[in-house]
Design a protein that fits this description.
The structure is a single chain. The strands form 2 sheets. Strands 2-1-3-4 form a 4-stranded parallel sheet, sandwiched between helices. The chain folds into 2 domains: about 120 residues, Rossmann fold, CATH 3.40.50; about 110 residues, Rossmann fold, CATH 3.40.50. The chain contains 13 helices and 8 strands. By secondary structure, the chain is α/β, with parallel strands linked by helices. Helix 11 packs across helix 12. The longest helix is centred in the last third of the chain and has 17 residues.
Length: about 240
């Protein structure tokens, strides 16, 4: 099967190794992976900020770039959700584009969901050893049902011990534009999340959305923790 990898803006700009790790996982699952070179943003920041025109333009761009593949996979629940569930709303007034958005939405998956429920990957290529605690990102959890999938993949690593943090499903405080508009509230939420994660004494904090991970890592460092790594699950599953 041909799977197109939607890298995401944050991964491309802030931590490209997540994209390469996702590519490795998809290839390990037997996929022929294509990475459209002209891809940019899914348009979620524009849509969430009320810039309808930019959101429409970017939605059409992504559809044109990614339609025609068997699947589209993103290492981000928020981006996968935006393409899958918001594009039909964004393009509802344009019947031709709406039809194309609906077709594409049925092919879009978050990475761990795709690996577990579509290709049913039974062996990950990584050799990570140590304890981890997992943060459930809001959009992936509540809009896509991403909960058991990353844990099932972590269970394939014999050297990994999962230490569940208190309130793993609670928000990290990022929320995209929320963290900018409501900085003080965001910081307090992030501190609570960091305290819960650190209390597990896990060797690493792991999640599936880089926005959350950057927010958690930034708060950890400001709290004086310069030791605990904050990793995307794709990095853990491909660690050498």
């Amino acid at each position: 099967m041909r799977a197109a990898l939607f890298v995401t803006c944050l991964v491309d700009l802030m931590r490209p190794r997540i994209g390469f790790a996702a590519l490795e996982l998809l290839e390990a699952a037997g996929c022929e992976v294509v990475v459209p070179a002209t891809q940019t943003c899914c348009g979620q920041p524009a849509w969430n900020s009320g810039d309808h025109c930019a959101a429409v333009t970017l939605a059409k761009k992504v559809i044109a770039e990614f339609e025609g593949y068997d699947y589209v996979v993103a290492p981000s629940g928020s981006c996968a959700d935006h393409i899958r569930n918001e594009y039909p709303k964004i393009l509802a007034a344009e019947p031709e584009w709406l039809a194309r958005a609906v077709t594409l939405s049925g092919q879009v998956f978050e990475l761990t969901d795709f690996l577990v429920n579509v290709v049913k990957l039974e062996r990950v290529p990584g050799h990570f050893a140590g304890s981890v605690t997992y943060h459930d990102s809001c959009t992936g959890l509540r809009s896509l049902g991403i909960k058991a999938q990353p844990r099932a993949l972590l269970a394939q690593l014999p050297g990994v011990e999962l230490k569940e943090m208190r309130a793993a499903e609670d928000c990290c405080g990022f929320g995209g534009a929320f963290s900018i508009k409501f900085g003080a509230v965001s910081a307090a939420i992030a501190e609570r999340k960091c305290n819960n994660a650190v209390a597990t004494e896990a060797d690493a904090i792991v999640g599936g959305d880089l926005g959350c991970l950057l927010n958690i890592e930034g708060k950890l460092r400001r709290l004086g923790d310069d030791r605990t790594p904050v990793l995307h699950i794709a990095e853990v599953l491909t660690a050498k």
